[in-house]
Amino acid sequence: MQGASRFVRFRNYGLLAVLLALLASCAVTPPSPTPQGRAAQAQQLLQQGQYAPAAQLYEALAAGAQAETRDDYLISAAEAWWQAGQGQQVWKLLGEVQPAFLTPTLNARAELLKAEMDFSAHQPQVALKHLQFPLTPLSDELQAQTLLLRAQVQAALNNTVAAVEDLSERENHLAGNSAAIHDNHQRIWQLISQSHTSFNMQALPPGVSQTARGWLVLGNLMRNIWQQPRNLLQQLQAWQTQFPNHPAEQDIVPELIAKQQALVTYPTRIAVLLPLSGPYQSVADAVRDGLFTAYFQLAGNDGAPVVTLYDAAGTAAGAQAAYRQAVAAGADMVIGPLIKNAVSGIAALGSLPVPVLALNTLDSNQPPPTGLFQFGLPPEDEAAQVASRVIAEGLKRGVALVPQSDWGTRVMNAFSARFAQLGGVLLGTQNYTPGMNDFSVPITRLLNINDSQYRDEQLAAFLGVSLQFEARRRQDIQFIFLAANADDAKLIRPQLRFFHAINVPVYATSQVYRLGDPADDDFDGISFDDMPWTLENSGAAANTRATVAALWTNNFSGNSRLYALGFDAWRLVPLLYKGHPFNISVQGMTGLLSMTPDGRIHRQLDWATFTNGTPQLLAPLAPPPGPIVVAPGPQP
Predict the structure, then answer these.
(1) Which of 40, 230, 399, 532 lies at a CB distance of 3.0 to 4.6 Å from 428, suitable for a disulfide?
(2) 425 forms bridges with which residues in the sheet?
(3) Cβ contacts of residue 539 below 8 Å, gap of 6+?
């Protein structure tokens, strides 16, 4: 009995072991997820921002799929890798796609992705070729996405009319989404606002829609706001009659009306503080005459303000005395002073019972008192915008050639600070003596030409033979930042070519261009930032510039940009005289004007490049498009 009992226990233990083994096998071998489940998991990872794991999962799905389903998974994986910042993997996967199996939607997604990558690599012409597929078979979402990217590419190619047409059409595919429609209007208006000249409505390509025409005509009206704001309301009424129920009626027209009202309400008495005698008289005369040019464009209307000039003498004490005199005389707003130390004198007063629009800027270590607004043409701002431009063009490694001067130091510090902030690497800097004829020493040092010659000479000495060699420049630089006036730049650019930097783009500030100089191809290849007053060949800026140049021929050539400063200063008064920062951007003669929180007027400048010796306007750089929204994976 005892033996039988033992046998039963062993038999029960054996049955238990079998059951445990079966349970264990169930625990470690779950059912395989379906392709639909794995595709849903990939989509969830995308929504969580986990792009790389989603891409890997799509790739795994593609490995086990066939034909169209496989291509859909490959394109989805490529889109996810693009969002993860892995461009090389994107091209690899797109190369595995079989075009013969692509539906119109899959083809559009693949071509859209290629276009986006080319555009981000600053190749808009190539990107545009990928965006020629038919839109009709596509969903509204995909059509809207394609039209947005195509508009950005067209804008980068300076084809504003085509870009406006694409964005106008895009609105038809936004499914009534009010936020998206408002954003689309702002995109169109920003694009039009950045256009350098008026649109020739008689020369538009055939087939331009009435909606796009309405936007373009409204853009032409906008350019007259700054020059002739009192005519805007009448012009808007005519526009509304010509383009009834236009989309711009929703948010752009009310914005223009508010801007117009802000630009025509002047205070009763305005004081202008300038150095009316002494060494600064010629520059002060230019500012004064530019200011009165703007004033007389508004003359003939009731309520024109009384303007009184005060001699600020170009000193801190002179500016303080002039300000007190103006306040005592009942001034509602003060324009000036012009010279930097005079502005510091005004700031040192601390309390400003009457707001001041200074025509220069304080040093960064001197905080402005309440009521002091700063508007000038500081070269530091131009240099910082050069840094922003080269980064926007994808150039992150450069060298700098700057003069040994206070101006050179200021410009270099501003450029290098902004360049580093944006992730750029400055590989080298050389100073030169302004006014020289031969700049070979700093140029060869900057380009490491001396190192190349030294290496070749050492090799010849080692071999004991005479070698024929050609000096080589360093190959790791993508651009050169040149801080120079027109006279020095005219000599430096050809010498850069001589020392093998012929294909290296050169960027500079407005100092390289002197308005009125004859065309000179020695400057070719230099790109620079400058104000609309200087660069535009038609429109309000060009017309006013021509008038001023004819009236003040002797003073204009050396001080042309200061006339624009005076003009814009007068037009800014209505936005500032109550002591409150303005919250709108206005297109001025000196740039697109806006205000920073500390009361500085910021100028967004235009860009040009020398071609055949003359500046040719460049299109504003559109920011790279946002990441593609990945469509849900296929459902086999």
Answers:
(1) 399
(2) 397
(3) 196, 197, 198, 223
Residue 209, SS3 per DSSP: coil
The pLDDT of residue 280: 94
Structure tokens at 454: 């030294």
> What does the alpha-carbon distance between residue 508 and residue 528 come to, in Å, rounded to a whole number?
5
**Superfamily in which the 265-377+542-589 domain is placed by CATH:** Response regulator (3.40.50.2300)
* Beta-sheet strands, E only, within 263-345: 269-274, 306-311, 333-335
pLDDT single digits (tens) 447-492: 987 544 444 444 344 445 443 445 555 678 999 999 999 999 999 9
Place of tokens 């392709």: 35
Closest CA to 174 of 136, 140, 146, 135: 140
CATH class of 380-540: alpha beta
Q: Do domains 265-377+542-589 and 380-540 have the same CATH topology?
A: yes
* 144-180 pLDDT tens trace: 999 999 999 998 888 899 999 999 999 999 988 999 9
The reply to whether the predicted model has a pTM over 0.85 is no
**CA 69-74-80 angle, 5° bins:** 130
- Using the structure block, give the residue that is written with the tokens 């008064």: 573
Q: Are strands 397-403 and 372-374 parallel, antiparallel or unpaired?
A: unpaired
